[in-house]
Amino acid sequence: MEVRYKREVNHNYMILDAPSEGGGYECRMLASNTIEGLLRFRVRQYEDKREFYYEITSRQPLNRLLEQRKINGGEIRAILLSLSRVLSKIEEYLLKEQQILLEPEFIYIEPDRFTVSLCLLPGYSAISRQPYQNCFGFFWKKSTTRTGKALSWPITCITRVCARIMGCQIS
Question: How many CB atoms within 10 Å of residue 151?
Fold first, then answer.
């Protein structure tokens, strides 16, 4: 998936090409509503393609934020609680959980308050567990500790999220 970035006068955007199929309802819902925990969204239609613009002003992708440091248990907890809240919120709008991009480059953080914003990609469907396993592996590699109770809660939470979204189990 190709990602581009654009800076306008007061805004920064992450731009993704729209998947070729579907996404009409999801696009209207995301463009018409501000859903807590999701990046703000708009669609640009061109003659031959559609592009999705995600507002990323004042936010950094998780992978860039953690290039030079580790993530602590409290930050993992904040991300997972945000994910849990978003999953509950998107149900109210009849959006699909499988359309959330959980790769670290699509999890955006406001560094000052460590608030999390996720990217929901209309027309996309995670059909394998790989994105969720990659997310778990990223947390594992970037965590400050890998023993005892510090990661037992995140492991349990990630397992439940994966089971909810994909109907799978992480072993």
Answer: 18
Give the integer Cα–Cα distance in Å for 19 and 28. Answer: 15
For 41-95, what is the HEC assignment? EEEEECCCCEEEEEECCCCEEHHHHCCCCCECHHHHHHHHHHHHHHHHHHHHCCC
Cα–Cα nearest to 98, from 69, 130, 71: 130
What amino acid is encoded at 51 in this protein?
E
Per-residue pLDDT tens over the stretch 26-37? 999 999 999 999
Please count the other Cβ atoms lying within 10 Å of the Cβ belonging to residue 84: 15
**Is the full-model pTM beyond 0.85?**
no
- 84 residue type, one letter: S
In angstroms, the CA 36 to CA 88 distance is 10
Packed helices 130-142 and 152-166: angle between N→C axes, nearest 10 degrees:
170
